[in-house]
Every structure is written in C-alpha cells, then in structure tokens.
Amino acid sequence: MPLYDCMLLAKPHVNKEALMDLVARVSKHVFRRNGVITEMKSFGIVQLGYGIKKLDGRFYKGQLMQMTMMATPNMNKELHYLNKEDRLLRWLLVKHRDTKYGMEFLSEEDSRNEMKKFQRGSIYNIAQEDDDDDDDDDEYDVDKEGKQVDG
C-alpha cells in the first residue's frame, strides 16, 4: 500500500474535541479499508497566505493537521465526504512517490554493513564499549608524521 499525507485545515474557532472527532472519523475510515495511520502531527493555528471564503465568513487563520497513512490507492475518492464537512476550510491528500521501506531502503552493500552491527553470540554477554581513539585522518589532510597539511 502506498504512503499518503492527509492535510486537514480546519477553521480556527473549532475546539479540540471537534477536531479530534473529525480526525478519528478519518482514521476509522482508513482502518475499515485495511489502512494504517503511521503518524499524526498538529501544527496548531497557522496564518494563511490568503483568505479562504466560506459561507460563515473569510478566514485568514486555520488549524493545520497532518495524518500520514498507508492506504489503498482509491482512498482519495473515498475521502470526498470531507468536502461537505463544515469544520474544514481545505483538505488535501498527497501521495509519497518513490518511497522505499525497510531493507529496500538500503543498497545491498549497506544492508550487509547494517547487519554486521549486530553482535553474534548470546544476548546476555556484556557488550564492550568501542575505543574512541580512532584515527580521524580521513577528516583532515595529515601527512605521515601527523602534521596538518595546508590545503
């Protein structure tokens, strides 16, 4: 399932309970379609770049929420009931493109190096701390005597 961001811009005077009710309704709709909400962010009240005109006035501020979800590709059509929601100024569904997850994110060589970080042996062995006296010659131009080279 692809990853989507659902941005909800609510009217500034909507109380938190009503906003959470709206978010819960969208979440339940996603769950019913075997989707998963992976992250939820609230940006609070934001100043808009232009006024949004609705039946009850023009709004220059709004409460912005972001819901990240894994859902079916037809989720955009299923969320059109939000157009009739009077608490919302705008809503937008954005699909993440070319997103890789898990071990697909790493190249073959990276994944081998990543797996080497895990110790072999018993989980009850006490891990020894690495010595931090590594030579950091790669960061600086240093000749063999240890003198810094101007460069």
Mean pLDDT, as a whole number? 80
Outline the biggest β-sheet. 4 strands, antiparallel
User: Shape from CA axes?
Assistant: extended
Strand order of the largest sheet: 2-3-1-4
Q: What is the chain-wise order of helices and strands?
A: EHEEHEH
- How would you name the oligomeric state of the polypeptide chains in this document? single chain
CATH level 4 superfamily of the domain at 3-95: Ribosomal protein S6/Translation elongation factor EF1B
**Rg on CA atoms, Å:** 25 Å
Number of strands: 4
Question: How would you describe this structure to a colleague?
Answer:
- By secondary structure, the protein is an alpha+beta fold.
- The chain has a domain at 3-95: Ribosomal protein S6/Translation elongation factor EF1B (Alpha-Beta Plaits), CATH 3.30.70.60.
- Helix content is 20%, strand content 32%.
- The chain contains three helices and four strands, in the order E-H-E-E-H-E-H.
- The protein has helices spanning 16-32, 75-78, 108-116, and strands at residues 3-10, 36-54, 57-70, 88-95.
- It has a four-stranded antiparallel sheet.
- The longest helix has 17 residues, at 16-32.
- The radius of gyration is 25 Å and the shape is extended.
